[in-house]
Amino acid sequence: MHTPTRTPRHSIYYTYRVFAPWLPSAHPAQTRQKAVIVGAGPAGMVAAMELARHGVPCVVLNAELQVSQGSRAIVFTRRSMEILQQFGVADRITANGLPWRFGNSFYRGQRVFRMEAPHDQDDRFFPMINLQQQYLEEYMLDALLANPLIDFRWGNKVTAVEQRDGCARLDIDTPEGSYMLDADWVVAADGGRSGIRAALKLQMEGASYEGLFVIADIRIDLPLPTERLAFFDPDWNPGNTILMHREPHGIWRVDYQLPAGESPDAALRPESLRARIDAQLAMIGHAGTPWEMDWCSVYSARALTLPDYVHGNILFTGDAAHLLPIFGVRGANTGFQDAQSLGWQLAFVIKGLAGTALLANHSAERVGAAREIIDEAGKSTRFMTPPTHGFQLLRDAVLSLSLSQQFVRPLYHWRTSRPHEYTRSALNSHGDDNALFKAGPAHGAPPQNVRLGADDFLLDHLGGGFDLLYFSAAAAVPEALQQVVADARARGIPLHVIAIGAAQPVAGADQTLPDTDGHCRRRYGVAASGGAYLLRPDQHICARWLTLDATRLQAALNTALPR
Amino acid sequence: MTAPASISIPDLETVYDHLATAIDRAGPQKTELFLVKLALLNANALGDAGLFLQNIHAALQDL
Description:
Chain A is built from 13 helices and 26 strands. Chain A is α/β, with parallel strands linked by helices. Chain A folds into four domains: 24-100 and 112-202 and 307-375, FAD/NAD(P)-binding domain (3-Layer(bba) Sandwich); 205-302, D-Amino Acid Oxidase, Chain A, domain 2, CATH 3.30.9; 383-412, no CATH class; 434-560, Glutaredoxin (3-Layer(aba) Sandwich), CATH 3.40.30.120. In chain A, the strands form five sheets. In chain A, strands 1, 2, 8, 9, 10, 11, 17 and 18 form an eight-stranded mixed sheet that branches. In chain A, strands 6-5-13-14-15-12-16-19 form an eight-stranded mixed sheet, with helices on both faces. Chain A has a five-stranded mixed sheet with strand order 24-23-22-25-26, with helices on one face. Chain B is globular, with a radius of gyration of 13 Å. The longest helix of chain B is centred in the N-terminal third of the chain and has 18 residues, at 9-26. By secondary structure, chain B is mainly alpha-helical. Chain A binds chain B through residues 393-394, 396-398, 400-401, 405, 407-408, and chain B through 32-33, 36-37, 39-41, 44.
Protein backbone atom coordinates (compact mmCIF):
# COMPACT_ATOMS: atom_id res chain seq x y z
CA MET A 1 0.00 0.00 0.00
CA HIS A 2 1.35 3.38 -1.01
CA THR A 3 1.10 5.82 1.87
CA PRO A 4 2.38 9.25 0.89
CA THR A 5 2.75 11.59 3.83
CA ARG A 6 -0.29 13.70 4.71
CA THR A 7 1.83 15.99 6.84
CA PRO A 8 2.61 19.27 5.12
CA ARG A 9 6.30 19.52 4.31
CA HIS A 10 8.38 21.85 6.45
CA SER A 11 9.11 25.32 5.15
CA ILE A 12 9.65 28.68 6.83
CA TYR A 13 8.23 30.64 3.89
CA TYR A 14 5.90 28.32 1.94
CA THR A 15 2.60 26.89 3.18
CA TYR A 16 2.15 23.46 1.69
CA ARG A 17 -1.35 22.38 0.76
CA VAL A 18 -2.01 18.64 1.13
CA PHE A 19 -4.44 17.27 -1.47
CA ALA A 20 -6.72 14.26 -1.15
CA PRO A 21 -5.51 11.13 -2.92
CA TRP A 22 -7.27 9.93 -6.06
CA LEU A 23 -8.77 6.55 -5.16
CA PRO A 24 -9.85 3.96 -7.75
CA SER A 25 -12.93 2.95 -5.68
CA ALA A 26 -14.33 6.44 -6.12
CA HIS A 27 -14.15 6.22 -9.91
CA PRO A 28 -15.64 3.98 -12.59
CA ALA A 29 -13.61 1.17 -14.16
CA GLN A 30 -10.59 2.54 -15.94
CA THR A 31 -10.67 2.63 -19.72
CA ARG A 32 -7.57 2.70 -21.88
CA GLN A 33 -6.01 6.16 -21.95
CA LYS A 34 -4.41 7.93 -24.87
CA ALA A 35 -1.63 9.37 -22.72
CA VAL A 36 -0.52 8.93 -19.13
CA ILE A 37 2.14 11.19 -17.66
CA VAL A 38 4.09 9.74 -14.78
CA GLY A 39 5.40 12.57 -12.61
CA ALA A 40 4.04 16.03 -11.91
CA GLY A 41 7.20 18.08 -11.73
CA PRO A 42 7.76 20.97 -14.13
CA ALA A 43 8.41 18.69 -17.14
CA GLY A 44 5.38 16.46 -16.53
CA MET A 45 3.10 19.43 -16.06
CA VAL A 46 4.29 21.18 -19.24
CA ALA A 47 3.81 17.94 -21.19
CA ALA A 48 0.24 17.68 -19.87
CA MET A 49 -0.58 21.29 -20.67
CA GLU A 50 0.85 21.06 -24.18
CA LEU A 51 -1.13 17.87 -24.90
CA ALA A 52 -4.29 19.51 -23.59
CA ARG A 53 -3.66 22.60 -25.69
CA HIS A 54 -3.86 20.39 -28.74
CA GLY A 55 -7.06 18.80 -27.49
CA VAL A 56 -5.53 15.53 -26.27
CA PRO A 57 -6.76 14.36 -22.85
CA CYS A 58 -4.26 12.86 -20.42
CA VAL A 59 -3.88 11.43 -16.94
CA VAL A 60 -1.14 12.85 -14.69
CA LEU A 61 0.09 10.64 -11.86
CA ASN A 62 1.73 12.23 -8.82
CA ALA A 63 3.00 9.86 -6.12
CA GLU A 64 2.85 12.63 -3.50
CA LEU A 65 -0.02 14.70 -2.10
CA GLN A 66 1.74 18.07 -2.29
CA VAL A 67 4.25 20.01 -4.38
CA SER A 68 8.00 19.46 -4.17
CA GLN A 69 10.15 19.66 -1.08
CA GLY A 70 12.46 22.66 -0.96
CA SER A 71 13.16 25.40 -3.46
CA ARG A 72 15.04 23.11 -5.91
CA ALA A 73 15.08 24.90 -9.27
CA ILE A 74 15.13 28.61 -8.54
CA VAL A 75 16.29 30.29 -11.76
CA PHE A 76 14.08 30.37 -14.81
CA THR A 77 15.28 31.64 -18.16
CA ARG A 78 13.62 33.91 -20.66
CA ARG A 79 12.81 30.99 -22.97
CA SER A 80 11.21 29.14 -20.06
CA MET A 81 9.05 32.17 -19.40
CA GLU A 82 8.12 32.34 -23.09
CA ILE A 83 7.01 28.70 -22.85
CA LEU A 84 5.15 29.20 -19.58
CA GLN A 85 3.47 32.28 -21.02
CA GLN A 86 1.72 29.95 -23.46
CA PHE A 87 0.08 28.21 -20.52
CA GLY A 88 -0.93 31.41 -18.77
CA VAL A 89 1.43 31.14 -15.80
CA ALA A 90 4.20 33.60 -16.75
CA ASP A 91 2.37 36.62 -15.29
CA ARG A 92 2.25 35.06 -11.82
CA ILE A 93 5.95 34.26 -12.00
CA THR A 94 6.72 37.81 -13.11
CA ALA A 95 4.58 39.19 -10.29
CA ASN A 96 6.34 37.13 -7.61
CA GLY A 97 9.84 36.41 -8.90
CA LEU A 98 13.06 38.41 -8.81
CA PRO A 99 14.43 39.20 -12.27
CA TRP A 100 18.18 39.60 -12.83
CA ARG A 101 20.88 39.74 -15.46
CA PHE A 102 24.23 40.18 -13.75
CA GLY A 103 26.64 37.65 -12.32
CA ASN A 104 29.82 38.30 -10.34
CA SER A 105 32.82 36.09 -9.76
CA PHE A 106 35.17 36.79 -6.84
CA TYR A 107 38.66 35.56 -6.05
CA ARG A 108 40.71 36.73 -3.07
CA GLY A 109 38.19 39.46 -2.34
CA GLN A 110 38.41 40.95 -5.82
CA ARG A 111 35.64 40.86 -8.39
CA VAL A 112 37.44 39.27 -11.31
CA PHE A 113 34.52 38.86 -13.69
CA ARG A 114 31.11 40.41 -14.22
CA MET A 115 28.62 38.65 -16.45
CA GLU A 116 26.04 40.87 -18.11
CA ALA A 117 23.27 38.97 -19.86
CA PRO A 118 21.83 41.03 -22.72
CA HIS A 119 18.33 42.38 -22.31
CA ASP A 120 16.84 43.58 -25.58
CA GLN A 121 14.04 46.15 -25.75
CA ASP A 122 12.17 43.56 -27.77
CA ASP A 123 12.17 41.04 -24.93
CA ARG A 124 9.17 40.83 -22.65
CA PHE A 125 11.02 38.73 -20.08
CA PHE A 126 14.32 39.20 -18.27
CA PRO A 127 17.18 36.82 -19.07
CA MET A 128 16.63 35.17 -15.68
CA ILE A 129 14.05 35.27 -12.91
CA ASN A 130 14.38 33.67 -9.49
CA LEU A 131 11.46 31.91 -7.83
CA GLN A 132 11.28 28.85 -5.61
CA GLN A 133 10.06 25.74 -7.41
CA GLN A 134 7.13 25.26 -5.01
CA TYR A 135 5.56 28.48 -6.29
CA LEU A 136 6.24 27.59 -9.89
CA GLU A 137 4.63 24.18 -9.38
CA GLU A 138 1.68 25.76 -7.59
CA TYR A 139 1.02 28.18 -10.47
CA MET A 140 1.31 25.40 -13.04
CA LEU A 141 -0.86 23.14 -10.92
CA ASP A 142 -3.62 25.76 -10.76
CA ALA A 143 -3.61 25.87 -14.57
CA LEU A 144 -3.66 22.05 -14.79
CA LEU A 145 -6.46 21.57 -12.29
CA ALA A 146 -8.58 24.09 -14.18
CA ASN A 147 -8.18 22.15 -17.43
CA PRO A 148 -10.99 19.66 -18.09
CA LEU A 149 -8.78 17.57 -20.39
CA ILE A 150 -6.29 16.82 -17.58
CA ASP A 151 -7.11 14.11 -15.06
CA PHE A 152 -4.72 14.81 -12.18
CA ARG A 153 -4.30 12.01 -9.66
CA TRP A 154 -2.61 12.72 -6.31
CA GLY A 155 -1.08 9.88 -4.32
CA ASN A 156 -0.80 7.55 -7.33
CA LYS A 157 2.56 5.79 -7.50
CA VAL A 158 3.61 3.66 -10.48
CA THR A 159 5.10 0.38 -9.29
CA ALA A 160 5.49 -1.50 -12.57
CA VAL A 161 5.23 -0.94 -16.29
CA GLU A 162 4.82 -3.45 -19.07
CA GLN A 163 4.63 -2.93 -22.83
CA ARG A 164 2.72 -5.18 -25.18
CA ASP A 165 0.74 -4.96 -28.39
CA GLY A 166 1.28 -1.27 -28.90
CA CYS A 167 0.10 -0.42 -25.42
CA ALA A 168 1.66 0.15 -22.02
CA ARG A 169 0.16 -1.21 -18.82
CA LEU A 170 0.91 0.55 -15.55
CA ASP A 171 0.52 -0.93 -12.08
CA ILE A 172 -0.39 1.97 -9.83
CA ASP A 173 -0.42 1.87 -6.04
CA THR A 174 -2.65 4.19 -4.04
CA PRO A 175 -3.49 4.67 -0.34
CA GLU A 176 -6.28 2.09 -0.75
CA GLY A 177 -4.36 -0.40 -2.89
CA SER A 178 -3.40 -0.85 -6.49
CA TYR A 179 -5.10 -0.70 -9.88
CA MET A 180 -4.03 -1.12 -13.47
CA LEU A 181 -4.14 1.49 -16.19
CA ASP A 182 -3.57 0.89 -19.92
CA ALA A 183 -2.26 3.68 -22.11
CA ASP A 184 -1.39 4.11 -25.75
CA TRP A 185 1.49 6.30 -24.63
CA VAL A 186 3.27 6.75 -21.31
CA VAL A 187 5.34 9.84 -20.65
CA ALA A 188 8.06 9.11 -18.09
CA ALA A 189 8.52 12.47 -16.37
CA ASP A 190 9.41 10.81 -13.09
CA GLY A 191 12.59 12.74 -12.45
CA GLY A 192 16.28 12.11 -12.03
CA ARG A 193 15.73 8.87 -10.14
CA SER A 194 13.19 7.67 -12.72
CA GLY A 195 11.71 4.35 -11.64
CA ILE A 196 10.58 3.71 -15.22
CA ARG A 197 14.09 4.26 -16.56
CA ALA A 198 15.38 1.79 -13.98
CA ALA A 199 12.60 -0.73 -14.74
CA LEU A 200 13.50 -0.66 -18.43
CA LYS A 201 17.19 -1.03 -17.46
CA LEU A 202 18.16 1.90 -19.68
CA GLN A 203 21.71 3.21 -19.47
CA MET A 204 22.55 6.89 -19.71
CA GLU A 205 25.68 8.14 -21.48
CA GLY A 206 28.05 10.85 -20.35
CA ALA A 207 30.09 11.80 -17.32
CA SER A 208 29.65 12.03 -13.57
CA TYR A 209 31.85 14.43 -11.63
CA GLU A 210 33.05 13.72 -8.14
CA GLY A 211 32.60 17.11 -6.53
CA LEU A 212 29.72 17.30 -4.07
CA PHE A 213 27.85 20.50 -3.30
CA VAL A 214 25.66 21.39 -0.35
CA ILE A 215 22.65 23.42 -1.39
CA ALA A 216 21.11 25.37 1.47
CA ASP A 217 18.28 27.89 1.64
CA ILE A 218 18.47 30.36 4.51
CA ARG A 219 16.32 33.29 5.52
CA ILE A 220 18.56 36.28 6.05
CA ASP A 221 18.39 40.01 5.46
CA LEU A 222 21.31 40.87 3.18
CA PRO A 223 21.52 44.30 1.55
CA LEU A 224 22.58 42.87 -1.81
CA PRO A 225 20.96 43.08 -5.24
CA THR A 226 19.56 40.09 -7.15
CA GLU A 227 22.74 39.04 -8.91
CA ARG A 228 24.53 35.73 -9.01
CA LEU A 229 27.57 35.62 -6.74
CA ALA A 230 30.35 33.06 -7.19
CA PHE A 231 33.36 32.81 -4.87
CA PHE A 232 36.39 30.77 -5.85
CA ASP A 233 38.92 29.21 -3.49
CA PRO A 234 38.04 31.22 -0.36
CA ASP A 235 40.15 30.93 2.79
CA TRP A 236 37.37 29.10 4.65
CA ASN A 237 36.93 26.47 1.91
CA PRO A 238 40.27 26.24 0.05
CA GLY A 239 40.15 25.08 -3.55
CA ASN A 240 36.35 25.01 -3.61
CA THR A 241 33.56 27.18 -4.96
CA ILE A 242 30.57 28.91 -3.32
CA LEU A 243 27.53 30.25 -5.13
CA MET A 244 24.85 32.60 -3.81
CA HIS A 245 21.48 33.58 -5.27
CA ARG A 246 18.70 35.75 -3.89
CA GLU A 247 15.24 34.21 -3.81
CA PRO A 248 11.89 35.83 -2.99
CA HIS A 249 10.64 36.00 0.63
CA GLY A 250 14.01 36.99 2.09
CA ILE A 251 15.59 33.66 1.23
CA TRP A 252 19.15 33.19 -0.03
CA ARG A 253 20.46 30.10 -1.74
CA VAL A 254 23.97 29.23 -0.63
CA ASP A 255 25.74 26.45 -2.53
CA TYR A 256 29.16 25.34 -1.42
CA GLN A 257 31.44 22.62 -2.58
CA LEU A 258 32.60 20.03 -0.08
CA PRO A 259 36.21 19.10 0.53
CA ALA A 260 37.11 15.88 -1.28
CA GLY A 261 36.17 12.78 0.70
CA GLU A 262 33.55 14.37 2.97
CA SER A 263 30.32 12.39 3.13
CA PRO A 264 26.91 13.99 2.47
CA ASP A 265 25.74 12.92 5.96
CA ALA A 266 28.63 14.69 7.62
CA ALA A 267 28.11 17.77 5.47
CA LEU A 268 24.42 18.03 6.41
CA ARG A 269 25.02 17.94 10.19
CA PRO A 270 23.57 21.16 11.66
CA GLU A 271 26.86 22.21 13.27
CA SER A 272 28.70 21.73 9.98
CA LEU A 273 26.12 23.74 8.06
CA ARG A 274 26.18 26.50 10.65
CA ALA A 275 29.95 26.82 10.75
CA ARG A 276 30.30 26.97 7.00
CA ILE A 277 27.43 29.36 6.36
CA ASP A 278 28.75 31.61 9.13
CA ALA A 279 32.19 31.52 7.51
CA GLN A 280 30.73 32.46 4.15
CA LEU A 281 28.75 35.33 5.67
CA ALA A 282 31.88 36.54 7.45
CA MET A 283 33.81 36.47 4.19
CA ILE A 284 31.29 38.74 2.44
CA GLY A 285 31.29 41.16 5.38
CA HIS A 286 28.09 40.11 7.10
CA ALA A 287 29.43 38.16 10.06
CA GLY A 288 26.89 37.74 12.83
CA THR A 289 23.82 38.55 10.72
CA PRO A 290 21.10 36.24 12.07
CA TRP A 291 19.78 33.57 9.73
CA GLU A 292 17.47 30.59 9.78
CA MET A 293 17.70 27.38 7.75
CA ASP A 294 14.81 26.40 5.52
CA TRP A 295 16.02 23.43 3.49
CA CYS A 296 19.26 21.77 2.53
CA SER A 297 20.42 18.95 0.32
CA VAL A 298 23.53 17.58 -1.37
CA TYR A 299 24.10 17.16 -5.08
CA SER A 300 26.83 16.13 -7.46
CA ALA A 301 27.41 17.33 -10.99
CA ARG A 302 26.36 14.82 -13.61
CA ALA A 303 26.15 15.23 -17.37
CA LEU A 304 24.26 12.19 -18.64
CA THR A 305 21.57 11.52 -21.22
CA LEU A 306 19.65 8.58 -22.59
CA PRO A 307 20.69 8.14 -26.23
CA ASP A 308 17.03 7.86 -27.28
CA TYR A 309 13.96 9.25 -25.52
CA VAL A 310 11.44 6.96 -27.24
CA HIS A 311 11.22 3.34 -26.10
CA GLY A 312 8.23 1.67 -27.70
CA ASN A 313 5.21 3.43 -26.24
CA ILE A 314 7.19 5.04 -23.43
CA LEU A 315 8.65 8.50 -23.86
CA PHE A 316 11.21 9.97 -21.46
CA THR A 317 11.35 13.67 -20.71
CA GLY A 318 13.06 16.13 -18.36
CA ASP A 319 15.39 14.72 -15.70
CA ALA A 320 14.09 11.21 -16.39
CA ALA A 321 15.71 11.55 -19.82
CA HIS A 322 18.91 13.30 -18.75
CA LEU A 323 20.83 14.59 -15.75
CA LEU A 324 22.52 17.91 -16.30
CA PRO A 325 24.89 19.93 -14.10
CA ILE A 326 23.10 22.73 -12.35
CA PHE A 327 25.79 25.28 -13.19
CA GLY A 328 24.04 27.28 -15.84
CA VAL A 329 20.47 26.60 -14.66
CA ARG A 330 19.99 23.73 -17.06
CA GLY A 331 17.69 21.31 -15.21
CA ALA A 332 14.15 22.66 -15.20
CA ASN A 333 14.88 25.07 -18.04
CA THR A 334 15.84 22.19 -20.31
CA GLY A 335 12.86 20.21 -19.01
CA PHE A 336 10.38 22.87 -20.18
CA GLN A 337 11.79 22.71 -23.70
CA ASP A 338 11.84 18.90 -23.66
CA ALA A 339 8.27 18.66 -22.48
CA GLN A 340 6.84 21.20 -24.87
CA SER A 341 8.61 19.48 -27.75
CA LEU A 342 7.24 16.14 -26.57
CA GLY A 343 3.75 17.48 -25.94
CA TRP A 344 3.01 18.89 -29.36
CA GLN A 345 4.67 16.11 -31.33
CA LEU A 346 2.94 13.38 -29.34
CA ALA A 347 -0.39 15.22 -29.69
CA PHE A 348 -0.01 15.38 -33.46
CA VAL A 349 0.77 11.64 -33.60
CA ILE A 350 -2.20 10.78 -31.38
CA LYS A 351 -4.48 12.90 -33.55
CA GLY A 352 -3.23 11.13 -36.69
CA LEU A 353 -1.79 14.33 -38.17
CA ALA A 354 1.67 12.77 -38.44
CA GLY A 355 3.29 9.36 -38.16
CA THR A 356 5.60 8.10 -35.44
CA ALA A 357 8.46 9.61 -37.47
CA LEU A 358 7.50 12.78 -35.62
CA LEU A 359 8.38 11.14 -32.30
CA ALA A 360 11.70 9.98 -33.71
CA ASN A 361 12.27 13.61 -34.67
CA HIS A 362 11.38 14.75 -31.15
CA SER A 363 13.92 12.34 -29.70
CA ALA A 364 16.63 13.35 -32.17
CA GLU A 365 16.05 17.05 -31.48
CA ARG A 366 16.04 16.76 -27.71
CA VAL A 367 18.89 14.24 -27.43
CA GLY A 368 20.84 16.64 -29.65
CA ALA A 369 19.98 19.47 -27.26
CA ALA A 370 21.06 17.41 -24.26
CA ARG A 371 24.36 16.52 -25.89
CA GLU A 372 25.02 20.17 -26.71
CA ILE A 373 24.23 21.12 -23.12
CA ILE A 374 26.45 18.34 -21.79
CA ASP A 375 29.30 19.60 -23.95
CA GLU A 376 28.89 23.18 -22.71
CA ALA A 377 28.16 22.22 -19.15
CA GLY A 378 31.20 19.96 -19.12
CA LYS A 379 33.41 23.00 -19.62
CA SER A 380 31.78 24.84 -16.73
CA THR A 381 31.87 21.79 -14.51
CA ARG A 382 35.55 21.12 -15.17
CA PHE A 383 36.22 24.70 -14.09
CA MET A 384 33.98 24.58 -11.01
CA THR A 385 34.97 21.10 -9.83
CA PRO A 386 38.25 20.17 -11.56
CA PRO A 387 38.20 16.39 -12.07
CA THR A 388 41.98 15.77 -12.22
CA HIS A 389 45.28 17.23 -11.08
CA GLY A 390 45.78 18.79 -14.51
CA PHE A 391 42.38 20.50 -14.53
CA GLN A 392 42.98 21.63 -10.95
CA LEU A 393 46.30 23.24 -11.92
CA LEU A 394 44.82 25.01 -14.92
CA ARG A 395 41.87 26.28 -12.88
CA ASP A 396 44.18 27.54 -10.14
CA ALA A 397 46.46 29.18 -12.70
CA VAL A 398 43.45 30.98 -14.20
CA LEU A 399 42.30 32.16 -10.75
CA SER A 400 45.76 33.49 -10.01
CA LEU A 401 46.20 35.16 -13.41
CA SER A 402 42.71 36.68 -13.30
CA LEU A 403 43.76 39.13 -10.58
CA SER A 404 45.95 40.95 -13.09
CA GLN A 405 45.26 39.51 -16.58
CA GLN A 406 42.12 40.43 -18.46
CA PHE A 407 42.38 37.69 -21.08
CA VAL A 408 41.59 34.77 -18.75
CA ARG A 409 38.57 36.38 -17.05
CA PRO A 410 35.96 35.21 -19.58
CA LEU A 411 36.76 31.66 -18.44
CA TYR A 412 34.76 32.47 -15.31
CA HIS A 413 31.66 32.77 -17.41
CA TRP A 414 29.83 29.48 -17.49
CA ARG A 415 27.35 29.60 -20.29
CA THR A 416 23.82 29.62 -19.00
CA SER A 417 20.94 27.64 -20.42
CA ARG A 418 19.78 28.84 -23.81
CA PRO A 419 17.21 27.37 -26.16
CA HIS A 420 18.56 24.77 -28.51
CA GLU A 421 18.31 25.57 -32.21
CA TYR A 422 17.07 22.61 -34.22
CA THR A 423 19.32 23.51 -37.13
CA ARG A 424 19.28 20.04 -38.65
CA SER A 425 15.71 19.08 -37.73
CA ALA A 426 13.91 16.71 -40.10
CA LEU A 427 11.01 19.17 -39.91
CA ASN A 428 12.93 22.03 -41.55
CA SER A 429 11.80 22.82 -45.08
CA HIS A 430 14.12 21.92 -47.96
CA GLY A 431 12.97 24.24 -50.70
CA ASP A 432 12.49 27.45 -48.77
CA ASP A 433 14.74 30.54 -48.71
CA ASN A 434 16.35 29.96 -45.30
CA ALA A 435 19.90 30.48 -46.56
CA LEU A 436 19.01 33.69 -48.40
CA PHE A 437 17.97 35.62 -45.27
CA LYS A 438 20.48 38.06 -43.83
CA ALA A 439 18.68 38.50 -40.49
CA GLY A 440 15.97 36.93 -38.38
CA PRO A 441 15.72 33.52 -36.72
CA ALA A 442 16.93 30.69 -38.95
CA HIS A 443 15.78 27.10 -39.38
CA GLY A 444 15.13 25.43 -36.06
CA ALA A 445 15.67 28.58 -33.98
CA PRO A 446 13.16 29.83 -31.43
CA PRO A 447 11.36 32.99 -32.53
CA GLN A 448 12.65 36.51 -32.04
CA ASN A 449 10.29 38.39 -29.78
CA VAL A 450 9.39 41.91 -30.94
CA ARG A 451 7.90 44.73 -28.92
CA LEU A 452 4.77 45.93 -30.72
CA GLY A 453 3.56 48.47 -28.19
CA ALA A 454 2.97 49.01 -24.49
CA ASP A 455 2.65 45.56 -22.89
CA ASP A 456 2.29 44.03 -26.33
CA PHE A 457 4.85 41.67 -27.87
CA LEU A 458 4.86 39.41 -30.91
CA LEU A 459 5.02 36.19 -28.89
CA ASP A 460 1.84 37.20 -27.05
CA HIS A 461 0.06 36.46 -30.34
CA LEU A 462 1.60 33.06 -31.15
CA GLY A 463 1.16 29.46 -30.16
CA GLY A 464 -1.28 26.61 -29.98
CA GLY A 465 -0.55 25.37 -33.48
CA PHE A 466 1.49 26.29 -36.51
CA ASP A 467 1.82 30.03 -37.01
CA LEU A 468 2.33 31.54 -40.44
CA LEU A 469 3.78 35.04 -40.16
CA TYR A 470 2.93 36.68 -43.48
CA PHE A 471 4.64 40.01 -44.10
CA SER A 472 2.57 42.11 -46.46
CA ALA A 473 0.97 45.52 -46.89
CA ALA A 474 -1.67 44.12 -49.26
CA ALA A 475 -5.37 43.97 -48.45
CA ALA A 476 -5.57 40.17 -48.64
CA VAL A 477 -3.49 37.03 -48.35
CA PRO A 478 -3.24 35.66 -51.93
CA GLU A 479 -6.04 33.29 -52.85
CA ALA A 480 -3.72 30.34 -53.54
CA LEU A 481 -2.13 30.63 -50.08
CA GLN A 482 -5.52 30.89 -48.45
CA GLN A 483 -6.47 27.66 -50.19
CA VAL A 484 -3.43 25.80 -48.77
CA VAL A 485 -4.31 27.11 -45.32
CA ALA A 486 -7.94 26.05 -45.70
CA ASP A 487 -6.93 22.57 -46.90
CA ALA A 488 -4.56 22.12 -43.93
CA ARG A 489 -7.24 23.18 -41.50
CA ALA A 490 -9.72 20.82 -43.16
CA ARG A 491 -7.28 18.00 -42.36
CA GLY A 492 -7.27 19.10 -38.72
CA ILE A 493 -3.95 20.94 -38.67
CA PRO A 494 -4.11 23.99 -36.44
CA LEU A 495 -2.67 26.80 -38.54
CA HIS A 496 -2.93 30.42 -37.60
CA VAL A 497 -2.16 33.21 -40.09
CA ILE A 498 -0.77 36.49 -38.78
CA ALA A 499 -0.43 39.28 -41.30
CA ILE A 500 2.31 41.77 -40.42
CA GLY A 501 2.66 45.20 -42.02
CA ALA A 502 -0.82 46.36 -43.08
CA ALA A 503 -2.73 49.19 -41.44
CA GLN A 504 -6.12 47.55 -42.03
CA PRO A 505 -7.16 43.97 -41.22
CA VAL A 506 -5.88 41.67 -43.98
CA ALA A 507 -8.42 39.32 -45.58
CA GLY A 508 -7.44 35.70 -45.04
CA ALA A 509 -5.42 36.44 -41.89
CA ASP A 510 -6.58 35.60 -38.36
CA GLN A 511 -4.81 38.65 -36.99
CA THR A 512 -3.18 41.72 -38.45
CA LEU A 513 -0.25 43.47 -36.77
CA PRO A 514 0.34 46.89 -38.38
CA ASP A 515 4.13 47.08 -37.70
CA THR A 516 3.91 50.75 -38.63
CA ASP A 517 7.60 51.47 -38.11
CA GLY A 518 8.75 48.30 -39.91
CA HIS A 519 10.61 47.10 -36.81
CA CYS A 520 9.17 43.58 -36.88
CA ARG A 521 10.09 43.22 -40.55
CA ARG A 522 13.66 44.26 -39.84
CA ARG A 523 14.04 41.83 -36.94
CA TYR A 524 12.85 39.07 -39.24
CA GLY A 525 15.03 40.19 -42.15
CA VAL A 526 12.07 40.65 -44.48
CA ALA A 527 12.69 43.37 -47.08
CA ALA A 528 9.61 43.15 -49.31
CA SER A 529 5.95 42.23 -49.17
CA GLY A 530 5.27 38.52 -49.54
CA GLY A 531 7.97 37.25 -47.17
CA ALA A 532 6.89 34.72 -44.56
CA TYR A 533 7.92 32.50 -41.64
CA LEU A 534 6.34 29.21 -40.62
CA LEU A 535 6.57 28.44 -36.89
CA ARG A 536 5.96 25.01 -35.41
CA PRO A 537 3.61 24.64 -32.43
CA ASP A 538 6.64 25.07 -30.13
CA GLN A 539 7.31 28.36 -31.99
CA HIS A 540 10.60 27.18 -33.51
CA ILE A 541 11.07 28.17 -37.15
CA CYS A 542 10.69 25.37 -39.72
CA ALA A 543 10.52 27.43 -42.93
CA ARG A 544 10.97 31.00 -44.15
CA TRP A 545 10.61 32.56 -47.53
CA LEU A 546 11.57 35.86 -49.14
CA THR A 547 8.46 35.39 -51.29
CA LEU A 548 5.96 32.75 -50.28
CA ASP A 549 3.97 30.76 -52.81
CA ALA A 550 1.32 28.10 -52.33
CA THR A 551 3.42 25.18 -53.56
CA ARG A 552 6.24 25.88 -51.14
CA LEU A 553 3.87 26.45 -48.22
CA GLN A 554 2.27 23.06 -48.89
CA ALA A 555 5.72 21.45 -49.15
CA ALA A 556 6.80 22.96 -45.83
CA LEU A 557 3.68 21.69 -44.06
CA ASN A 558 4.23 18.22 -45.52
CA THR A 559 7.84 18.19 -44.30
CA ALA A 560 6.89 19.45 -40.85
CA LEU A 561 4.35 16.65 -40.38
CA PRO A 562 6.02 13.46 -41.67
CA ARG A 563 3.74 10.47 -42.23
CA MET B 1 57.56 29.55 -46.69
CA THR B 2 59.44 31.55 -44.14
CA ALA B 3 61.45 29.78 -41.51
CA PRO B 4 59.70 29.81 -38.11
CA ALA B 5 60.91 32.60 -35.86
CA SER B 6 63.45 31.36 -33.36
CA ILE B 7 65.09 32.90 -30.39
CA SER B 8 68.74 34.05 -30.53
CA ILE B 9 71.32 32.25 -28.45
CA PRO B 10 71.90 35.21 -26.08
CA ASP B 11 68.14 35.65 -25.61
CA LEU B 12 67.70 31.93 -24.98
CA GLU B 13 70.41 32.11 -22.34
CA THR B 14 68.63 35.03 -20.70
CA VAL B 15 65.34 33.11 -20.69
CA TYR B 16 67.14 30.06 -19.30
CA ASP B 17 68.57 31.94 -16.34
CA HIS B 18 65.44 33.92 -15.57
CA LEU B 19 63.17 30.89 -15.77
CA ALA B 20 65.44 28.89 -13.47
CA THR B 21 65.62 31.73 -10.98
CA ALA B 22 61.84 32.25 -11.12
CA ILE B 23 61.19 28.55 -10.46
CA ASP B 24 63.42 28.79 -7.41
CA ARG B 25 61.60 31.93 -6.27
CA ALA B 26 58.22 30.23 -6.70
CA GLY B 27 59.45 27.35 -4.55
CA PRO B 28 58.64 23.65 -4.86
CA GLN B 29 55.04 24.08 -3.62
CA LYS B 30 54.20 26.63 -6.31
CA THR B 31 56.40 25.52 -9.20
CA GLU B 32 53.65 23.79 -11.11
CA LEU B 33 51.23 26.67 -10.64
CA PHE B 34 53.87 29.15 -11.75
CA LEU B 35 54.70 27.14 -14.88
CA VAL B 36 51.05 26.75 -15.86
CA LYS B 37 50.47 30.49 -15.44
CA LEU B 38 53.52 31.11 -17.59
CA ALA B 39 52.24 28.69 -20.22
CA LEU B 40 48.87 30.47 -20.37
CA LEU B 41 50.52 33.88 -20.66
CA ASN B 42 52.66 32.58 -23.50
CA ALA B 43 49.62 31.00 -25.19
CA ASN B 44 47.97 34.40 -25.10
CA ALA B 45 51.11 36.04 -26.50
CA LEU B 46 51.30 33.42 -29.27
CA GLY B 47 47.67 33.94 -30.18
CA ASP B 48 47.71 30.58 -31.96
CA ALA B 49 46.16 27.49 -30.38
CA GLY B 50 47.58 25.25 -33.11
CA LEU B 51 51.15 26.32 -32.43
CA PHE B 52 50.57 25.92 -28.71
CA LEU B 53 49.30 22.36 -29.23
CA GLN B 54 52.46 21.61 -31.25
CA ASN B 55 54.52 22.88 -28.33
CA ILE B 56 52.54 20.71 -25.91
CA HIS B 57 53.26 17.73 -28.12
CA ALA B 58 56.98 18.57 -28.31
CA ALA B 59 57.23 19.06 -24.56
CA LEU B 60 55.61 15.69 -23.91
CA GLN B 61 58.37 13.94 -25.88
CA ASP B 62 61.15 12.13 -24.05
CA LEU B 63 59.93 12.88 -20.52
